[in-house]
Amino acid sequence: MREIVPSMHFLENFMPVVGDEPFAVKLLEEASHIPFYKAVELGYIRDAACRREVRRIVEGRGWQVTAWCSPVIADAGLSLSSLDPVERKAAVAMAKELVAGAAEYGAHRVGLQSGPDPGDAKREEAKKVLLESCVEIAEFAKAYPNLYLIIEPLDRFVHKKQLLGPIGEVVEWFAELKKTAPNFYIHWDSAHEKLGGADLIESLRLSAPYLAQFHICNCVTEEGHPYRGDHHMDVGQAPDYKTWGYLTPEVGAEMLKEAASFEPIAGIDRMTIALEVRSHLADDLWAKERLIRTFLQRVFDLAGVPYDK
Ligand SMILES: [Mn+2]
């Protein structure tokens, strides 16, 4: 059995305001009074005073902190799996900088992603250089004793079109990475798997030997539907929780139950689960937060997994 605790995906749930760091920090402080969550997922924070504030809040709350740094590298137009050595070198240097910065505001996990899929002909080479990038970052991250690295496989063919990728391939690649970089783990996401056409439970099981945390996330997979893709879409509301997507509390509970049944792995005392829903400008953010929390609570209740220990 593995212990799994609820995580607040602050970055996505409060997306419209996270760019205003001082404002977002005030919201984080308010959010820290919600007893349900035992972990939090943030973006990359740049301001030194805000970093100190975030650290004070998360340490005071005893939250496990994930810092999602993947968008920073992608937004800079860089990729850890780039076949251009100059670009890849810049991406690795940036990743190290992000690890050091995230450690300042109390991060325990730093989240990365591969890079765009280069197509059939160059895929194997890209995987090879990605491994080299990850080994170098892992070596650097060893200086931070309570910090691990996580990599989130995305979909390859539908929306995010990343190198990693279908879970079977990811797991094979990961086994190789683990030999030299034991401080790397997988972050699994149900929407990417669903969009990739995977069976959710089977995919989750494949990731189990390396799994540190996961997202449940709603999406539409139907071709031609305007909502198709990884848009971090809304979940439904009681009583029927129906949306155009696949995710209901019952489906979420099935995943949570499965993950809780896995054998423990070295380095991971407790896993986290977050419900990934993105808010948009003009949303009532606290109403949205309540909706997300109510849904995730129901997932725990249906799975029979306790969250208030
Ligand atoms: Mn995700």
Description:
The protein is an alpha/beta fold and 309 residues long. The protein has a single domain (4-303), classed as Alpha-Beta Barrel (TIM Barrel), CATH 3.20.20.150. Helix content is 43%, strand content 15%. The protein is built from 11 helices and 10 strands. Helix 3 (48-61) links the parallel strand 2 (39-42) and strand 3 (64-68). Helix 6 (123-141) crosses helix 7. It starts with a strand and ends in a 6-residue tail after the last helix. The mean pLDDT is 97. The structure holds manganese (II) ion. The site of manganese (II) ion has 5 residues, from loops.
In percent, how helical is the residue content?
40-55%
Could you spell the SSE succession in H and E letters? Answer: EHHEHEHHEHEHEHHEEEHEH
In total, the number of domains comes to 1
Tell me the radius of gyration.
18 Å
Top-tier CATH class: Alpha Beta
Provide the list of bound ligands, each named once. manganese (II) ion
Label the overall shape: globular
Ends distance: 16 Å
Task: Summarize the entry for a quick read.
With about 300 residues, the protein is of the alpha/beta class. The protein is built from eleven helices and ten strands.
Question: How would you summarize the topology of this molecule?
Answer:
Blueprint: E1 4-8, H1 10-13, H2 21-31, E2 39-42, H3 48-61, E3 64-68, H4 70-75, H5 85-104, E4 109-112, H6 123-141, E5 148-151, H7 167-180, E6 184-189, H8 190-195, H9 200-207, E7 211-216, E8 218-220, E9 229-233, H10 249-260, E10 271-275, H11 285-303
Parallel strand pairs: 1-2, 1-10, 2-3, 3-4, 4-5, 5-6, 6-7, 7-10
Antiparallel strand pairs: 8-9
Helix pairs in contact: 2-3, 5-6, 6-7, 9-10, 10-11
The chain binds manganese (II) ion (MN).
Residues 152, 189, 215, 217, 276 line the site of manganese (II) ion.
